[in-house]
Amino acid sequence: MNDVSYPVVTERVLAPMAPKKLFGKGQTRRADEVPEPLVGHCLVYRTRGQYTVDTYCLPPDSPIVVEATHVSVVDTTVDTKIAVELPLPSRDASFFTLRVTFLCTVDDPAEVVRVGGQSAESLLAGYLRGHQRIFEIGLDYGVDDLNDVRRKLSAQVRAYAEVTPPDLRGMKTNLASVEVSTPDDVIEFHDQLRAKHRDYVVKTEELVNSEHLDDMKEQQQYRREQRTSEHARRLDADQREHHRTELRRTAEAVGADPFAALTLAHTAGEVGAKEFAERISAIREKEIEQDREDLRNRIQYDRQHENRHWAAEREDRRKETEQRALTHEAELRQMEASKEFERERIRAKWDAEIARQRAKWEADEATRIQVGTWAYEEKQIEREAVERKILAKMEVLREFAKHGQLDMLNLKLDEVANDMLAIESKSDESAPAVTQPEAEPASDDGEQDDDRTTRVEA
Hints:
The chain has helices spanning 63-67, 109-114, 120-129, 133-137, 146-163, 184-254, 258-267, 273-402, 406-427, 447-457; strands at residues 8-13, 41-47, 50-54, 70-75, 80-89, 95-106, 171-181. By secondary structure, the protein is an alpha+beta fold.
């Protein structure tokens, strides 16, 4: 609600002046008798039943000011916002709060004071209460259907203001906005829901964090046990590697000399004297056999050398044969190049045909898009015709209202509101949807190229 009175800010009764003496000073008003107007305000004096607007040029000793019995301060600010709130009953025994904002401008301050200077807010509230339909809309909806009620009430109030605009004498009034505030119980309910949801999120996060901490503890214990087991396995592996190293050193010390190894075993008591002599004899026989084997290998080497000589000659003959084969292969490649040239010529011919088909397809697609655009423009023309028809109907209803035929106006007002809702829904329609373009002509790449190549080679 508005805290400052509008359009009349303040009023003051002026005391009658004493009769002027014959040779006395002229009559004048004291500075404290006439209020000081602010920027955007003006003074209206009532003198002998006449109302005069002070345009900041009447001095305190002016006859109009001296003889005035009443002065009013009128707010002449352009487009002053005046909000009117009305409680509207709902289906579930609650209330919707309708808040309608008007833009008011005083164009005749004298007329405003003449008609009594009533509050514009109370006058506009009475204007809205004169339309009974807005008190009936909320009965079909509960407080949970707030958005539907907002749309219905907005359309109903705007239609009412369009057909029967508010008529405040001395003022111009225009409808600025229509709002329906959310009931306090609905706000409290949703606040509780949000609080419950936040508690749920906090508890869920705590549970998840607790489970995650337990998982981290289990993983830490598992890694600790794994490190202990890995350390034991490494100690065992180091011991086995130490034994292998000792054996390798012993083998390196005696492995190259079988006599030394046999002598070491005889000294350690692992081999007896008889076995020692037999093994020595066997070693010597093995050395003799090794000499014979070396002689056989020498003879085999000489034979292999002779075989390599003959193999070299055969290799020369093979290279000569390969050279002749390369010459023949070059001739074959030249023939293949000629065939490839012929295939490229045929492929270029096919590509030109494909380009011609694609150009024809693009032209057909442009024609189809143009036809869709024309159809959309025809729909726009039809919608504008419907809007003009509705506006003409509203003009007829406005004429009925001017001639006092309010009964017929109340019967038709719902129809006008529905028509305005239809216009708003049509204005939200999007541009015509672009249909899926037809598939482009298939390219002759890939398998079709292979088919043409096959035909040429055939």
